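Write out this protein's structure.
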Amino acid sequence: MITSMKQDSQAGHVPAASTPAAPSAAPSTPPSNPSNGPRELPAFAVKDLNLFYGTHRAVQEVNLEIPNRSVTAIIGPSGCGKSTFLRTLNRMHELTPGAHHTGTILMHGEDLYRAGIDPTLVRRRVGMVFQKSNPFPTMTVAENVLVGLRLNGVKDKSLLRERLEQSLRMAALWDEVKDNLHKSGISLSGGQQQRLCIARALAVRPEILLMDEPCSALDPIATAKVEELIHEIKKEYTVVIVTHNMQQAARCSDRTAFFYMGKLIEYAETKAIFMNPTQPQTEAYVSGRFG
């Protein structure tokens, strides 16, 4: 049920040149299912999604499926609806006054917007890492990682210690901070702070991780570390990343969605998007002719 977390958690072991008007989105085709068994439900199935801020329609008629245990990149010029779309996947957009939507978003087959669903529980299952790292300034490194677990009522000290190390290791940060867990989270470098925020998101064991421009403020070395992390965690997690960096999308993702003016223009395997796009506007964007 959508109202419950994963079994682990239940137990407490818990946002140029002129271009032609955007065409309608090309039909998105889900990944093939080579087995003879029933097809696995996608992490997300988005159907006829429109997102409004008051009377302004920011996202228009989006249809796509995001597969499990994979990285999906969302690319497009500024203001095209990338981050807005991302925030609909864990209902973060509802924190903006006047935001409302039409259409359906299914997560593993369940409607995220069904009556009676607590948005807080949705956000617990669908974690998010923001563009600007935001460690809590009054908390230590350890407290930053564990804050979500503590807010969820976890008091078992051995479990907290275990989850602290596990999450920092998953974020490729343990070896750098293991002797400084008592220091302030904001004492870390910018790249370390971003990985600390990733560790914080992973500590509560979400099913899906959303990342909104997580490397935009990082240097190349820190960016490489975050990209390595994304590659590793997709073995267990579904990752959806918004990025302006097309090279990053090409390096990190299995599938890529190109948005323009609120519309999904094209969605396919990343290699196809960059090497053989079907839509002229996609080709113009990935080749750098606009954006």
